[in-house]
Write a sequence for this structure.
């Protein structure tokens, strides 16, 4: 049976992040993707130039319409934008217990634009974190949620993962992509303790939408019934390949997108698409 996964997030018209990246990742990971939009953005690979929020009541209407008709096997939550939308999302999903929820606390775009009002942080923490099966912050996001300094060591990452789990989510995956050095480790905090996932840093500027892609791949794996550590391992392996193949695309002149469909769009050694 093909699983159904709902993304609640913002739109990226350039296709590299947000809802567009989520749907690509869902398809690549063999689940059926659906989307409830929280915001429209004007952005490309060089940055965000505008944000238009969807009214909170209509965000909730989208979510309730899907629940009224479709079996949902997992939910990914991305850009929430403000406190009113955060409350509306929480109201819409709270009645549906037992569905895996991956919460990616999108706060700042790759180019530096703010994507979450400061007033929404406390609502996010108070209402959505306790609903989450897995919270997936990067280092600046983890620091913002804890009102602390950005972690610079593995020990600080581990401490912040444990502190975030104390706020209510079942598990927390703190992503170490912002650490200095050649490695990019992530740490998973669960009731069983800490588990580290090692990865080499891939030298590329094409990292637009990596957080969206990872959280969506995680939601897909949880929807298919994977245990949390395996879901993380499989989703990270998928993202690593998508980043490694990003240079087979030619999209924009800034932070380009990852190649979500590297398995399905094979390239010849000279960089051209293979004939089928």
């Amino acid at each position: 049976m093909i699983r159904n996964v709902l993304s609640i997030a913002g739109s990226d018209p350039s296709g590299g992040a947000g809802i567009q990246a989520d749907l690509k990742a869902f398809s690549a990971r063999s689940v059926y993707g659906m989307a409830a939009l929280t915001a429209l953005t004007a952005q490309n690979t060089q940055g965000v130039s505008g944000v238009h929020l969807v009214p909170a009541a209509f965000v909730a209407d989208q979510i309730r319409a899907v629940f009224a008709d479709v079996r949902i096997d997992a939910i990914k939550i991305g850009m929430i934008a403000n406190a009113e939308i955060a409350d509306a999302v929480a109201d819409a999903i709270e009645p549906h217990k037992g569905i895996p929820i991956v919460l990616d606390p999108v706060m700042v775009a790759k180019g530096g634009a703010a994507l979450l009002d400061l007033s929404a942080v406390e609502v996010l923490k108070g209402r959505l974190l306790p609903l989450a099966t897995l919270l997936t912050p990067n280092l600046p996001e983890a620091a913002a949620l804890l009102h602390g300094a950005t972690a610079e060591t593995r020990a600080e990452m581990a401490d912040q993962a444990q502190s975030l789990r104390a706020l209510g989510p079942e598990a927390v995956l703190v992503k170490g992509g912002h650490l200095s050095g050649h490695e990019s480790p992530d740490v998973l905090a669960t009731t069983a303790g800490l588990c580290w996932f090692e990865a080499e840093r891939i030298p590329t500027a094409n990292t637009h939408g990596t957080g969206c892609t990872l959280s969506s791949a995680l939601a897909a794996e949880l929807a298919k019934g994977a245990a949390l550590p395996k879901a993380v391992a499989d989703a990270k392996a998928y993202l690593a390949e998508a980043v490694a193949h990003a240079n087979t695309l030619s999209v924009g002149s800034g932070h380009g997108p990852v190649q979500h469909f590297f398995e399905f769009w094979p390239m010849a050694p000279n960089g051209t698409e293979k004939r089928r």
Summary: The radius of gyration is 17 Å.
